Amino acid sequence: MFIVRETTIIIAMSRYDPSAFPPFAVTVDLVVLTVRDHELCALLVRRGEPPFQGYWALPGGFVRPDEGLAEAASRELAEETGLRASAPGQSAAGVHLEQLATYGHPQRDPRMRVVSVAHLVLAPDLPTPRPGGDASSARWAPVHELLDDGPADGVPLAFDHGQILGAGVERARSKIEYSSLATAFCPPEFTVGELRRVYEAVWGVVLDPRNFHRKVTGTPGFLLPSGGTTTRQGGRPAQLFTAGGATVLNPPMLRPEA
């Protein structure tokens, strides 16, 4: 029976004609978010080649024939920015990577039919990125300038990257309500005040310090005392914490209404 089944598969494959279907390319685009100077910022690269040469865009590029999507996302992140991440949902050097969404409008890329698999990358306060690949320069841009106020130079992002950026920011804003993902923006040891400023930057709100402290320290598995203290914020020594083992927060950290 096994031989018959294998023979049937071989015959069926021999009749398959790949040229009967139009070819298309697959890319990965990265929404890289961090908190700098108490603001949620996104990583942009200036395109050094057509199409959209000179436009700001999200980092990314074409998937190679011999690699998976997560591998391509990690490679593009390293090539274009010097940052490194590992597999989706895991952390390497403090960088969180997860798949976001797929974009496949037939006219999204003027070169050919291109389907993009977008990824979300979150990390603590990161240094100034270095450009690489086909990027001529790279910078951190406050998210509110790109989404709420529009680009500072009045020029939209390349391709459909404005739409992808908006989806990535909303994913981060909603996910820190019910998961411990906000700790991905923090160093390995952090204070409650530093974590609060992450929530304030991502949500774009001001939170009551006492209520916030009560919620995060009272949520099972969210934070673990590290045993140390710090005065890096000034004033009295503040207790240091590390991320706990909880992946889902119960009760959730509900986002205040705008």
From TrEMBL:
Pfam families: NUDIX (PF00293), WHD_NrtR (PF21906). The keyword Thylakoid does not apply. SUPFAM superfamilies: Nudix (SSF55811), Winged helix' DNA-binding domain (SSF46785). Gene3D superfamilies: Nucleoside Triphosphate Pyrophosphohydrolase (3.90.79.10), Winged helix-like DNA-binding domain superfamily/Winged helix DNA-binding domain (1.10.10.10). Residues 23-165 form the Nudix hydrolase domain. It comes from the Bacteria. Keywords: Hydrolase. GO terms for molecular function: hydrolase activity. Signal peptide: none annotated. Belongs to the Nudix hydrolase family. This is NUDIX hydrolase.
